[in-house]
Write a structure and sequence with these properties.
The complex is a heterodimer of chains A (484) and B (478).
Chain A lengths: L5 H10 L4 H19 L2 E4 L1 H16 L11 E4 L26 H9 L3 E5 L33 H8 L5 E6 L5 H7 L2 E4 L19 E6 L2 H11 L29 E5 L9 H16 L3 E5 L4 H19 L18 H12 L2 H14 L5 H21 L5 E5 L15 H6 L5 H6 L3 E9 L2 E8 L5 H14 L12
Parallel strand pairs in A: 2-3, 7-8, 7-9
Antiparallel strand pairs in A: 1-3, 4-6, 5-6, 5-10, 9-11, 10-11
Chain B lengths: L2 E12 L24 H4 L11 H12 L7 E2 L2 E4 L9 E4 L9 E6 L5 E13 L3 E4 L6 E4 L6 E7 L6 H18 L11 E11 L8 E6 L2 H20 L7 E6 L4 E7 L9 E2 L6 E2 L2 H10 L4 H12 L3 H7 L3 H13 L5 H19 L10 H12 L5 H12 L5 H8 L7 H14 L1 H8 L5 H12 L6 H12 L2
Parallel strand pairs in B: 11-12
Antiparallel strand pairs in B: 1-9, 1-10, 2-15, 3-4, 3-14, 5-6, 6-9, 7-8, 10-11, 12-13
Helix pairs in contact in B: 2-5, 3-4, 6-7, 7-9, 8-9, 8-10, 10-11, 13-15, 13-16, 15-16
The chains are: A alpha/beta (484), B alpha+beta (478).
């Protein structure tokens, strides 16, 4: 059942072959069986899932169902869910139950997608391995010694292990694409502003963007249809005509111009990852695409720029967690400052505190120009690189991450090495561009993704390329043995 | 040694919008604590601000009235600091690119001299909530009803050199924002708050260290607080002390100021552009649309009252003291057929405005409406009643006894214009005062006033005075 495409699942639901309750129960059973070891879910919501599945079945019976009606979904624990804990994998929000749904959650509820639960992540989405979760690290289904990537590591793991057919993720510096690459699944970060941020706990507001995480590009296209769209509650949401992201899936890649940046294949890139990526690009040529060399000369400025700007925004976004109105509050505060200091010291984990400190420092009087403003300038330079490159090509392809999944604990004490694992994904967030990660092979027996970056609003094109690639490859169909 | 006083004011004007600046919650004053705070105002996780567009037009309007530059592209910034009444841990404000740039406001002092005060800028921001003490014994509560209320912070140049100038500026700004209808001006409810930056220096020396006086909710106390603060600083400096940059609170009971917090303890606000809000872009068309919808400004109205209605400068100033009074006057003039604006002005400025003052009522709550007052003035104009009788009628209307006509009817106050009746009264008075008649005829024509008074008295004040005059003169010259 978990090897079906979403469209196939939908057809079975519509034809009455299976019910949503059966489908949902199937995933709930797999979760009970596998998740205690995998630790991909923070919260599982069986009663709610079955109740929603029953409603979906009634709706299917009336013939008013949409394609995704009745198909269960797992939400990253950063999306607020009315009545269900939203922890952001932090002790700070371990007791937090929002009285509202995120826009994305509302959209999927409207369609009738039962909620299986909330997935594990790096605390407040700060990390590239899901190790910084208050609830412990999620394991990579392909190798339990390995990290699933992050911050949407739980989401990637549940898709890879068949513990949900679809999952929501968010991507601030690579948090959808890098775990998608590490877990051998498909994930797309849309253009900034395509999916509403309303109800998503903010990490770095000018970068945060939600997107689908699924087995295939086709599945992602269906899910993006449900997630995307203008929302007046998010001022940065873009008011555009509704797009059907499945419309271009079957288009031929004949004449597609692929830009390959020389800078993305230099020092630091694992040789076997490079091999996988180059082979995948070669296969694109077989599909009719042509390859041109492009340059992104300011690529190395992206990580430093990001690690000033994202923490700066985070330091402000996370100020609301002060122990006063919601979330963790320290015991027996002596006075107001003690309440603030201890609630935050005890409620936040190390990486979150580190980024708050870095961000506050970058914004402080006397340093603002040297750090924050300078980083903004670099951000524009990185964006201009892409604008320039897209004059010569339709899309850019390269690696998602310099390596396949690393081991749990391997980079825990080396922040810079951890930060550098996002060097290919971060430039895309700085520019606000859409980008896709599709499974393209293995390195050290762990999955490797191909990174496809497009111009603004080229999601349909990216999914078309991903889908065509998946017509001639079966990397996306493979599953770790013990989860088959 | 002579001292110079330097004062700049920061005025927070609450904009008259139904909902908050970044959420749909109501801005109504006085609701139960936290009943008007939605998840956005409380700073709940994942909540995002959406700008209430109504604040843009109101800000542009003030900018135009101050002859200021309008920010074609203004940006919201976050001002970061921790405080229990600040739910997000930052206040959304404007720092580098405010919506209103450099402008000016002319003030007039009591002695009639005029002075132009520079306005540095005006920027939009959200209000914080407030701490509530005593509701829960031994604890401090937080009421977030006010959180997110739209404010326009109007910052003056340090152009004022006395408490009187500062108050004249504050009053003028107070009048202006109410005129424009962008702020209700209610100082008790905190809709118009004035913070004063006060420093002193010896003539010719650079600016001294300033103290900020906060949370003073009447013009009288602002004046007293500044006067006290100026004296305090001068005494301090003359005795060899130093002024500390700090915020001071005014205590009306003792008429003193005391330190609230010094700047050393103050925060580094770590301002940066708010990534959740787009820059506000204002086009020439937007500005023109506001210009076209703008009410007449006090100064223009004053000039028009003089030229159009022939009023004295004094009456024009009194009438335009508030937009409501000016509009009341213009309604009365229109309802009386615009024939005697001066008479209308007299009644509005003396009878009507005096009664308002006496009872402490705003124009809107006066028991005598423009229709009622006009109805009475029409009766003065058609000689149905004299000015003196009108005062009686006005008082009766104020007490709610009905229209002028019904009061005149019920009390029998209609003016006597029947010459036969007046002649009889005149004859009686002249007959009763033979010696005075002799005196008049001997050349003491001043006696005429005495006879008029006697006749008016005999008529119960109802005889038409000019007719009485005419008939007396005729009879006395017989």
């Amino acid at each position: 059942m978990h090897n079906l495409t979403i469209k196939q699942m939908s057809e079975k639901l519509q034809s009455g072959d299976i019910t949503s309750v059966q489908l949902t129960q199937y995933y709930l059973d797999r979760i009970s069986q596998y998740d205690p070891e995998l630790n991909a879910y923070v919260t599982v919501t069986p009663e709610l899932a079955i109740q929603m599945a029953e409603e979906a079945d009634r709706r299917i019976a009336t013939g008013k169902a949409e394609l995704l009606t009745g198909i269960p979904v797992a939400h990253k624990d950063i999306f607020c869910t009315d009545g269900i804990k939203t922890s952001c994998s932090s002790k700070m929000l371990d007791n937090f139950i929002a009285p509202y749904d995120a826009h994305v959650v509302t959209q999927l509820k409207k369609i009738g997608m039962p909620i299986l639960g909330k997935t594990n992540m790096d605390e407040f989405a700060m990390g590239s391995s899901s190790e910084s979760s208050y609830y412990g690290p999620t394991k990579n289904p392909w190798d339990h010694k390995a990290v699933p990537g992050g911050s949407s590591g739980g989401a990637a793991a549940v898709i890879a292990a068949g513990l949900a057919p679809m999952a929501t993720g968010t991507d601030t510096g690579g948090s959808i694409r890098q775990p998608a690459s590490f877990c051998g699944i498909t994930g797309i970060k849309p253009t900034y502003g395509v999916v509403s941020r309303f109800g998503i706990v903010a990490y770095a507001s000018s970068f945060d963007q939600a997107g689908p995480m699924t087995r295939s590009a086709e599945d992602s296209a269906w899910m993006l249809n449900a997630m995307a769209g203008f929302d007046e509650r998010d001022s940065t949401s873009l008011e555009r005509e509704k797009t059907d992201y499945t419309a271009e899936l079957e288009r031929s890649l004949e004449g597609l111009k692929i830009g390959v940046p020389a800078e993305y294949f230099g020092e630091g890139l694992d040789a076997s990852v490079e091999d996988v990526v180059k082979k995948a690009i070669a296969q694109m040529k077989d599909l009719g695409a042509e390859v041109v060399e492009v340059h992104l000369p300011n690529k190395d400025l992206a990580v430093p720029s990001y690690y000033v700007l994202a923490p700066a925004e985070a330091s402000s976004n996370l100020s609301r967690f002060d122990g006063v109105r919601f979330g963790y509050r320290c015991e027996q505060a002596e006075d107001l400052n003690d309440l603030y200091r201890r609630s935050r010291s005890e409620g936040f984990g190390e990486e979150v505190k580190r980024r708050i400190m870095v961000g506050a420092y970058a914004l402080s009087a006397g340093y603002y120009d040297a750090y924050y403003l300078k980083a903004q300038k670099l951000r524009r330079m990185v964006r201009d690189d892409f604008v320039h490159a897209f004059k010569q090509c339709d899309v850019i392809m390269g690696p998602v991450a310099p390596t396949s999944a690393f081991n749990i604990g391997e980079k825990a004490d080396d922040q810079v090495s951890m930060y550098l694992s996002d060097l290919y994904t971060i430039p895309v967030n700085l520019a606000g561009l859409p980008a896709l990660s599709v499974p393209a092979g293995f390195a050290q027996e762990r999955p490797v993704g191909l990174h496809i970056v497009g111009p603004y609003f080229s999601e349909a094109k990216l999914l078309n390329i991903g889908h065509q690639f998946q017509q001639v490859t079966n990397w996306h169909k493979q599953m770790p043995k013990q989860y088959q | 040694m002579s001292w110079e006083v330097v004062i700049g004011l920061e005025i927070h004007a609450q904009l008259t919008t139904k909902s908050k600046i970044f959420s749909g919650a109501s801005t109504e004053y006085g609701a139960a604590p936290n009943s008007q705070a939605c998840p956005i105002d409380i700073g709940m996780p994942g909540m995002l601000p959406v700008l209430n567009q109504a604040v843009i037009g109101k800000s542009i309007m003030l900018g135009l009235a101050l002859d200021a530059e309008i920010g074609k592209r203004s940006v919201f910034d976050r001002k970061n600091y921790f405080y229990p009444d600040l739910p997000k841990g930052y206040q959304t404000s404007q720092f580098e690119l405010p919506i209103v740039g450099q402008g000016k406001l002319e003030i007039e002092l009591e002695d009639g001299t005029k002075k132009v005060i520079g306005v540095t800028r005006a920027h939009l921001e959200e209000d914080a909530g407030k701490s509530v003490h005593g509701l829960v014994p031994g604890q401090t509560g937080v009421d977030l009803n006010r959180s997110g209320t739209p404010l326009l912070e109007i910052v003056s140049d340090p152009d004022m050199s006395s408490a009187k100038e500062a108050v004249a500026y504050a009053k003028k700004m107070h009048e202006l924002v109410q005129y424009l209808g962008i702020c209700d001006g209610n100082m008790q409810e905190g809709s118009f708050r004035v913070d004063s930056n006060v420093s002193v220096r010896r003539k010719g020396e650079p600016l001294g260290t300033r103290a900020e006086l906060k949370n003073i909710n009447s013009f009288r106390f602002i004046e007293k607080a500044i006067e006290f603060e100026v004296e305090r600083q001068i005494e301090l400096l003359e005795s060899g002390g130093k002024v500390v940059q700090e915020t001071r609170l005014y205590d009306a009971e003792t008429n003193t100021t005391r330190s609230m917090r010094t700047k050393e303890e103050a925060n580094d606000y770590r301002y940066f552009p708010c990534p959740d809000l787009l820059p506000v872009v204002i086009t020439e068309e937007d500005i023109k649309a506001v210009k076209d919808s703008m009410p007449e400004l006090p100064e223009a109205k004053r000039q028009r009252f003089v030229s159009e209605f022939g009023l004295s400068e004094y009456d024009a100033v009194v009438l335009t003291g508030s937009r409501a009074l000016a509009e009341f006057f213009e309604t009365v003039v229109a309802l009386t057929g615009s024939k005697d604006a001066k008479l209308c002005a007299n009644w509005v400025t003396s009878g009507f405005a005096a009664a308002l003052n006496r009872d402490g009522l705003p124009v809107e709550q006066a028991p005598v409406t423009a229709e009622l007052l006009a109805g009475m003035i029409v009766r003065i104009m058609d000689n149905s009643i004299s000015g003196k009788i009108a005062k009686q009628v006005f008082e009766a209307m104020w007490k709610g006894e009905g229209t002028a006509d019904s009061i005149i009817e019920a009390k029998g106050l209609k003016q006597i214009t029947d010459s036969g009746v007046i002649e009889a009264l005149v004859d009686a008075v002249l007959g009763d005062n033979p010696s005075q008649v002799e005196a008049y005829k001997a050349g003491q024509t001043k006696m005429l006033g005495y006879f008029v008074g006697q006749v008016m008295q005999a008529s119960g004040g109802q005889a038409n005075p000019s007719q009485v005059n005419q008939i007396l003169v005729a009879k006395l010259s017989d």
